[in-house]
Amino acid sequence: MSFSPINALSPLDGRYVGKLAILRPLMSEQGYMHRRVQVEIAWFIALSDAKFAEFKPLSPGARTYLLGLVKNFSEADALAIKAIEKTTNHDVKAVEYWIKSKFEARPELQAASEFVHFACTSEDINNTSHALQLKSSRELVLLPALDKLIAQLRQMAHEHAGEPMLSRTHGQTASPTTVGKEIANVVARLVSTREKIAGVKLMAKMNGAVGNYNAHLAAWPDFDWEAFSRSVIETPEPLGLGLTFQSHSIQIEPHDYMAELFDAVARTNTILIDLARDIWGYVSVGYFKQRLKEGEIGSSTMPHKVNPIDFENAEGNLGLANALLRHMSEKLPISRWQRDLTDSTVLRNMGVALGYAVLAYHSLFTGLTKLELNREALSDDLNASWEVLAEPIQTVMRRYGVQGAYEKLKEVTRGKTVRAEDLHALIRSLEIPEAEKERLLAMTPASYVGMAATLAKRV
């Protein structure tokens, strides 16, 4: 069977293949190979500048050619490496051999070919490559998708800042708010977690088989290999890697930063699950209508239905993302002694976890852009919920020392259908200033929203 989206095992490469095209070159195996080539070339060029008598500085032409191998890395190059791996049965060694094969007919590079992968263990290449994959995915895919979602929510928060809405606590009627304020709550949370995602330092180590520069010092005992490694890791791309130096490690980089990053993404996703469920509920009670799309069907038997599928898809995919992200954040920092291979197979699923998250962000954005406010439904709910004014009435009563304020309102409102005239009769009987009576009599459920509009516009 030839591969196509219709027979893909994963829906990310099947049903949703078109929605994740931007992530695929970064987090696929080809993307992983690309970063390995980048790391090997950066290390090789840096070695040529280390002033070793045995490895003279490379010519400008050689440098340009080597950087071109990284810049122009293609699917054909990735397949060539896979072909070599069939013989080596070792993916990193296959990358090394592929790079050396590119030195043919170039005497300058052939003479220095043994400095490819010099003193490196496979994990020196792998951990830096994973960090580069996460770096590009965070900068080019994850944060832009999240920023787009935050911008849409912020726009909605400002647009609907003054639209009154009945709140519900424990599913019961509660003090009114505004539509914009409820959305602003989500924006404020997302801005915070977005900063956490962006602020995680992506760590990398290049210190040999067990993290002690053993082989490096065997070759040049008097050379400052730690400073050299730091320079390669922290020098900006393309000559360096633009990452943060990890000073202490076993054979593998400890992956603590990955756990921090994945936990930050998972926390963001949890907030978005909360949002998806709330919007689903608001659609269910009619606060939002969804714009119709010509030809779209909500049910195979019920013609009237317009399902909130974008929010349901988002919730499901966010759950899948978090299941993987949380497993990785718990598993990756754990290694038996110097290392085992349980991290290797798990790390190959980073793109899957991020893919489900990004897919969900797109679904949420699409769903949000389809929403239309149903002001009539919002107004009807408020007008049928005069009991929510028990709170301001009893609070004013307590201000003026009316004894048993809470209990009096409880007697009038709890478990009852409350009408405006019931509350107005109570207000007129109170021993409070006339101006305060008039203020309470003028109050409606729709006007009792506190500073919700101000808070909504503040995000």
Whole-Å distance between the termini?
52 Å
Structural class: mainly alpha
Instruction: Count up the helices.
Output: 20
Kindly provide the radius of gyration, computed on alpha-carbon positions and rounded to a whole number of angstroms.
Answer: 31 Å
Q: Which percent range fits the helix content?
A: 55-70%
Unreliable stretches, pLDDT < 50, 5 or more residues?
299-305
**How would you describe the shape?**
elongated
The counted number of beta strands is 6
**Strand/helix succession:** HHHHHHHEEHEHHEHEHHHEHHHHHH
Strand order of the largest sheet: 1-2
Average of the residue pLDDT scores? 94
Largest sheet: 2 strands, antiparallel
Could you tell me the strand content as a percent range? 5-15%
Can you lay out the helices and strands and say which pair or pack?
Blueprint lengths: L23 H4 L1 H20 L11 H12 L3 H14 L2 H11 L5 H5 L10 H38 L4 E6 L2 E7 H21 L3 E2 L9 H6 L5 H10 L9 E2 L10 H29 L3 E3 L18 H23 L10 H6 L2 H20 L1 E3 L1 H9 L6 H10 L5 H9 L6 H10 L4 H9 L9 H7 L1
Q: Notable features of this structure?
A:
mainly alpha, two-stranded antiparallel sheet, single chain, two-stranded parallel sheet, 5% strand, 459 residues
Give a structural overview.
This protein has 459 residues and is mostly helical. Helix content is 59%, strand content 5%. The chain has helices at 24-27, 29-48, 60-71, 75-88, 91-101, 107-111, 122-159, 179-199, 214-219, 225-234, 256-284, 309-331, 342-347, 350-369, 375-383, 390-399, 405-413, 420-429, 434-442, 452-458, and strands at 164-169, 172-178, 203-204, 244-245, 288-290, 371-373. The strands form 3 sheets. A two-stranded antiparallel ribbon has the order 1-2. Strands 3-4 form a two-stranded parallel sheet. The longest helix has 38 residues, at 122-159. The chain is elongated, with a radius of gyration of 31 Å. The two termini are 52 Å apart.
